Amino acid sequence: MAKDDRDILEILKGELDFIEKGGYGRSVRTPWLEKSVFQDSLSCINYADPKHSVPCSECRLLEYVDTAQQVEAVPCHFIHLNEAGDTIEELENTENEAKLEKEVKDWLRARIHEIEETRSRSNLA
Fold first, then answer.
1. Non-local CB neighbours of 98 within 8 Å, separated by 6+ positions
2. What beta strand segments (E) does the chain contain?
3. Whole-structure pTM value
4. Hey, where are the domains in the chain?
């Protein structure tokens, strides 16, 4: 199986755009279903695939997950979002959607900025 060859910058920008447009809000059709960060967006390599046929080890987001957590069922939920080490997993369990959304957006903006800066320096060299 091929590794996810999507551009990580485009994945992160797409996720930020998705969140900013209310992507994780409750659906009018299925308001009882909670949405899960990354899993319920196009960022996920298994989006809309109920069989999850592609292993998470193929996902581009895995580079942001500590090695010890890469074996978790949903490894991207163990990305450290801030200096305190908060993860999506922890914040989803607190049921504080506003804090979760803020921390994920801040994390996405920081990673996007880092990648753009790195690519900009590479293009100047």
1. none
2. none
3. 0.87
4. 8-124
Query: Side chain identity at 87, as an amino acid letter?
Result: T
Strand partners, 19: none
Q: Which amino acid is at 33?
A: L
d(CA 87, CA 112): 18
User: Would you give the DSSP letter of residue 75?
Assistant: G
For 9, half-sphere exposure in the C-beta direction (CA atoms, 13 angstrom radius) is: 9
Tokens 């994920």 belong to which residue? 104
Q: Amino acid letter at 67? A: T
Write phi, then psi, for 34 (nearest 5 degrees): -75, 150
What's the distance, CA 18 to chain centroid? 11
Q: For 24-72, what is each residue's pLDDT tens digit?
A: 765 656 665 677 899 989 999 999 888 889 999 999 999 999 999 999 9
Q: Left if phi > 0, otherwise alpha if psi is -120 to 50, otherwise beta: which for 5?
A: alpha
